[in-house]
Amino acid sequence: MADPVSYASQIKPLFNPQDIGCMSGMGVKLDDYTWMSDPTGGAMGSCTDFPDHMNGRSVYAKLTGECQPKMPLGGAPWDQASLDLYNQWMQDGFQP
Ligand code: HEM
User: Fold this and answer.
1) Omega prior to 69 cis, within 30 of 0
2) What local confidence, expressed as pLDDT, does residue 85 receive?
3) Ligand 1 pocket mutation, candidates 28, 32, 40, 58, criterion most atoms within 8 A of CB
4) What is the pLDDT of residue 2?
5) Distance (Å) from CA 2 to ligand 1 centroid
6) Residue 41 and residue 20: Cα distance in Å, rounded?
7) Distance from C-alpha of 80 to C-alpha of 6, rounded to nearest angstrom
8) In the chain, what are the domain boundaries?
9) 13 within ligand 1 shell (Cβ under 6 A)
């Protein structure tokens, strides 16, 4: 079986400085493992209500466009391979 997807080595590098800068002002800490893996559930703004891991799951919903407006705002949408990797990170239990 493949190793679990790692936030530090595989997910964090997918965010560029502009993504991190734009979002940190809104409290969305894309470069912070503790925030990204927070197990608390709930709904962020008008996004889906998640039973757990609201932060990490809302980020994914924004990247796919399930939660509008789709992110990154004004930037190139993520390709399917990157979305799949992020989804696998969640399925693997939000590992560091
Ligand atoms: C991979 C990149 C990005 C991700 C994962 C991301 C994620 C998110 C998330 C989760 C929210 C919802 C926050 C909330 O409702 O409290 C949001 C909102 C927002 N983001 Fe981003 N973001 C990204 C890139 C960017 C960039 C580059 C910009 C600026 C150019 C930006 C500007 C905004 C704005 C203006 C909102 C508020 C939109 C609204 O609710 O009308 N984001 N983003």
Assistant:
1) yes
2) 98
3) 28
4) 86
5) 31
6) 22
7) 18
8) 7-91
9) no
